[in-house]
Amino acid sequence: MYYLGVDVGSVSTDFVMMNEELKVVDSLYLRTKGNPVKVVASGMERMRSRYDSAEILGVGATGSGRALAGSIIGADVVKNEITAHGAAAAVVNPDVRTILEIGGQDSKIIIMKDGIVNDFAMNTVCAAGTGAFLDRQASRMDMSIEDFSRIGLESENPVRIAGRCAVFAESDIIHKQQQGAAEKDIISGVAHALVRNYLGNVARGKKIKEPVFFQGGVSSNATICRAFEDELGCSVTVPEYNKVMGAYGAAVLAKEYIEKNTARTKFRGFEASYSDMKAHTFKCADCNNNCEITEIYDGEYKMGCLYDRCGKYQSLLN
């Protein structure tokens, strides 16, 4: 018997299948590609070929698209990424004190105490401290992000790159290339710039205490991990399921909810992947909130409504 966790982000959508002993038995890391409805259906279809719907005891959803995913799959709990990442890290190491998390388009720091989230902060508007910035620089240098990570580790003398702004950082990279700096030193310099940006913005004012976990898609980049260790002066642990810790945490939270409430799961079943799922968005002008409402359809059947602050459209379904 299993618990399913789904994390729908702007860049990736992740699935984790967890057993009753909190062990990850299966995972998927898929590109969202701007179509969360389609990628959720695709992930469900892949899981359907491996598991039976009757084996699922509970389902959790998280990520920026958590409400949408929760409606589609029938999630028992829908939680934010901070809570999910904290829950997963606490299972791996109950003593974890700091979680550094960097994804494709956002980053966050989570301060843990006694296995629960005690404080957190997220990036605001700058992209210089995210995976998207790294992907762009790797593309500019005509290499894969995997090569970018590997080559950067060879550097013993990283160049200084301005990291406070993505635009200025890119200009500085070009300048260093024109000066003839070694590729490996530029890559390592980019990594250190990203880390300094993160520590100076996202982690500003936070006391980073060990043990320190590094999670999210960017944590797979060994050069970034080493840059964090250089800048922090301490060991940084990348957990085994670093790229899907949000989904893992969602599964953990689903298990806690089901057991605490002795509830039966609302999971719609993997067969939902066959459904003609569609999302329709419109703006409601009935009051000053001007909510952008998202309606979820299965064919012609309206399954649910999201983001109506007053609950008007959701109540019409009852």
Structure write-up:
With 318 residues, the protein is α/β, with parallel strands linked by helices. 36% of the residues lie in helices and 24% in strands. It contains ten helices and 13 strands. A hairpin with an 8-residue loop joins strand 11 and strand 12 (292-298). It is globular and about 60 Å long. The model has no long low-confidence stretch (mean pLDDT 87).
Any chance you could write out the topology, listing elements then pairs?
Blueprint: E1 2-8, E2 12-19, E3 24-31, H1 36-48, E4 56-62, H2 66-73, E5 77-78, H3 81-92, E6 98-102, E7 107-113, E8 116-122, H4 131-140, H5 145-152, H6 166-178, H7 183-201, E9 212-215, H8 222-232, E10 236-237, H9 245-261, E11 277-283, E12 292-298, E13 301-306, H10 312-315
Entry summary:
The chain is of the alpha/beta class and 318 residues long. It contains ten helices and 13 strands.
How helix-rich are the residues, as a percent range? 25-40%
The 3D shape can be described as: globular
Number of strands: 13
Low-pLDDT sequence parts: none
Total helices: the number is 10
Sequence of strands across the biggest β-sheet: 3-2-1-4-5
Q: How far is it from the N-terminal to the C-terminal residue, by CA?
A: 32 Å
Strand content: 15-25%
Question: Can you summarize the main beta sheet?
Answer: 5 strands, mixed
User: Could you say which structural class the secondary elements and strand pairing correspond to?
Assistant: alpha/beta
Question: How many whole angstroms does the radius of gyration measure?
Answer: 21 Å
The average pLDDT value, as a whole number, equals: 87
Q: Encode the helix/strand succession as letters.
A: EEEHEHEHEEEHHHHEHEHEEEH
